[in-house]
Design brief:
8 strands, 2 domains, globular, two-stranded antiparallel ribbon, disordered N terminus, Rossmann fold
Length: about 210
């Protein structure tokens, strides 16, 4: 029983696999200028890493009716900048070891499938059996549940790995385990508040999950 437990790892993309923060901020600021909400300054960065996605949206002054348009525009700009996005240091080696250990790997992202697939090909990390894109900012739990069902694995075998508070919330909402990585968008302190099952400090820590 123990041998099969935790054998499926599903990953968030931005901040978890892709070191995209340096690209994300200019993109958000470009969309802010286009759509008339607050830009992110350097001094805002340490503040925002402790906020949830809903708190960030409120801080930036993005009206709820504009959010789908903001997300759509940001996804288009990310696709254009994919060549400038690099893997988190050490993640490719960790993924290779997980893959060769027989772990089933998947990605659930708020980015586009095309962006993720290009990133995977470019970095030669084609280890994922499923890639699912969720355009809704708040719909990760539903997409996660649907993805797990489609993959035909039981909830007890799955851990969702992400770098944001909302990743932990989404996993807990559908009753699966959550692993929070400290190298992404939210701070360790912010992640710990959501009570993840695991806190990972380095990509090599992923191997401890199996």
């Amino acid at each position: 029983m123990e041998e099969e437990y935790k054998k499926t790892l599903l990953f968030d993309f931005d901040g978890t696999l892709a070191d995209s923060l340096l690209v994300a901020v200019p993109i958000i600021n470009q969309v802010a200028r286009e759509m008339g909400f607050k830009e992110i300054s350097v001094k805002d960065m340490s503040l925002l890493e402790n906020k949830s996605a809903r708190e960030i949206v409120k801080f930036l002054g993005i009206p709820s009716y504009k959010l789908p348009l903001v997300v759509r525009r940001a996804r288009i700009l990310f696709k254009q900048e994919v060549q400038s996005i690099y893997p988190v240091r050490g993640i490719c080696e960790a993924l290779e070891k997980l893959y060769h250990s027989g772990v089933t790997l998947g990605i659930l992202t708020s980015n586009t499938s095309n962006t993720v697939e290009h990133f995977i090909r470019k970095n030669k990390i084609d280890y994922f059996v499923s890639i699912s894109a969720s355009s809704g900012v708040w719909s990760k739990s539903r997409k996660l549940k649907k993805m797990i069902s489609k993959m035909g694995v039981s909830d007890s075998q799955v851990i969702y790995v992400g770098d944001e508070m909302r990743d932990i919330v989404a996993a807990k909402k559908i009753g699966i385990q959550a692993a929070a990585v400290t190298w992404g968008y939210n701070s360790k302190a912010a992640l710990e508040k959501e009570g993840p099952d695991f806190i990972l400090e380095h990509p090599s820590d992923l191997l401890k999950l199996i």
